[in-house]
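Lab notes, practical 5.
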Amino acid sequence: MAARKSTRVNRRDKTKYRVTNWREYERGLKSRGDITVWFSEEARDAWTPPKNGRRGGQPHYSNLAILTALTLRMVFGLPLRQTEGFLDSLLKLMELDMKAPDHTTLSRRNKDVDVPAPTRVHDGLIHLIVDSTGLKISGAGEWHTHRHKSSMARRQWRKLHVGVDDDGFIVAATLTKNSVDDPSIVPELVEQIDSPIKRFTADGVYDTRPVYELLGEVGVADIQIVVPTRRGAVPSDGAEGTWAQRNATLETIANVGRQGWQRESRYRLQGGVENLFFRYKRTLGDSLRASDYESQKREAMIGCNVLNRMAVLGQPESQAIVEE
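Output from the prediction step:
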């Protein structure tokens, strides 16, 4: 049997880039570590919710208060008790007559806190790049597995599915169990986007007919779908609409190869979502701290909002280096 040819790009063929706005980007990186905190008058007034008119105990903390504490926990990687102490010390330093939510309240309210969707307003059409990554939640670690020669069967994961735009901002996100297949989540991601989709880019796992047909319904009339076909894929007879683009992809790959198709279709823009996953795990960690599934979903959404906020502070602008 002939060995399958590798699809990796030779290091010599990779395009090199240089950052053109290094001064502004460096200022933005420094701002991500700025711990300056202030509370507006609206935030102070909204810290305690109004009475709901029901009999019994009233909630002491509003959705804003819980979300503020959980965001600080996410940014600084704190357990719940340390989050309570950290926020309480900030309020004392600012001499505000406000109390931080205790850790038991944070644990309970984390299951139903209202987290804003990581959306971004677009005036025109949008290029949507979709992918997923795994986040650890429980089970023995890698060192325990190596030390005791045990299997990784007990390790559990969640899948974080995101859609990003050309600028690397998260415009749609959801967290699922690891048993959920990636193409089935595309409708949920697309539903979170208000702007018309002009281009869709994803890896080969999204090479399914339902994905093509859905994009034909929600995208613009001439939407461009850039998804590599699976190995051994064959053209479909009588393909119409967006599904016909798959036949065109197969023809191009047959003529110029996969790497040639990647260059012509600019498929490597898909690397933008890979960079985002790297930033998520490098900045916020590759594990979810919450043990409850509903809490884990909200924790992941808070993390996506944090990354978007960091992106607003500054992102690199680069251009390709042309070697003569």
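Observations recorded by the TA: Residues 1-7 have pLDDT under 50 and may be disordered. The beta strands are 17-19, 126-138, 156-164, 170-177, 197-201, 219-226, 318-320.
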